[in-house]
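Do me a favour: review this protein, sequence plus C-alpha cells, and tell me how the chain folds. Record follows.
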Amino acid sequence: MMKICFLVSGNGGNLKFFDLALKKGIIKNVKLQVIADRNCGALNYAIKSGIPNRLITYKIDKTIELNEALDNFRPDLTMTNWHKIIDKHTVEKWKERMVNLHYSLLPAFKGFIGIKPIELSFSNNCQYIGATTHFVEEEVDGGKIICQTIIKRGNISIEDAIKLIFRRGCLILLNSIVLITGREDIININEKETIEFSPNLKFDQSIFDENFWNEVSLI
C-alpha cells in the first residue's frame, strides 16, 4: 500500500480528486494522509472522510511539528499543496519524496501560489497556459520538472481556464506519482501519445469523465 500525504491549507481539491478516485476504484493500493497548517476545508474533509490527519503549527523556523508528523506517517510521497515555503532541512530530509503542483508552465510565474499564475498568464496575454509538477527543492518552484500540461488559450475565459487547469493538474499529479514510483498497480496503464501532456499520461484520461469531475466539484 503506497502512502501519499497532502500538506494542505485550502479546500483540498487535489485531495478530493484522489479520494473520490479511490472510492470509485479508479485508483487502488493507495492510502491518503493529511497534514494541515490551519483549520481549512481540506482538513475538515479529511476528518469527515476518516483520512488520517494532523493539524500542526509550522513556520520556516518552527519545523518540529511538521517533521514529527511526517516521521509518524512515513509517506512514500508528499504533495505540498499548502501556502508555505518549506525549510531547507525538511526539504533535504525528504528529498525527491516531495512534489509540488504549480499552475503555470514553469519557469514562468515562479513564486506565486494558487490561481495567481493563471491570472498573470492572462494579464500578460500568454497564448499557452498550463500546469507543472516538480520536485520540491530549496529554491521556490525551482525543483526538477516531472510533468507538464499545456493548453492553447484561444478564446477561453479565465473562469474556464481555472477549471480546466485544475483538472489537468490533478491528472499530472497522478501521472507524476506513477512515474516517480514505478507503481503501475495503482491505476490501469493505458499510455497514449498526446501533445497536451509531457510525459504522456500513463493512463487513459477518459476514465475521469464529466460526471466524475462534477462530483469532485460538489464535494
Q: What stands out?
A: The longest helix spans residues 158-181.
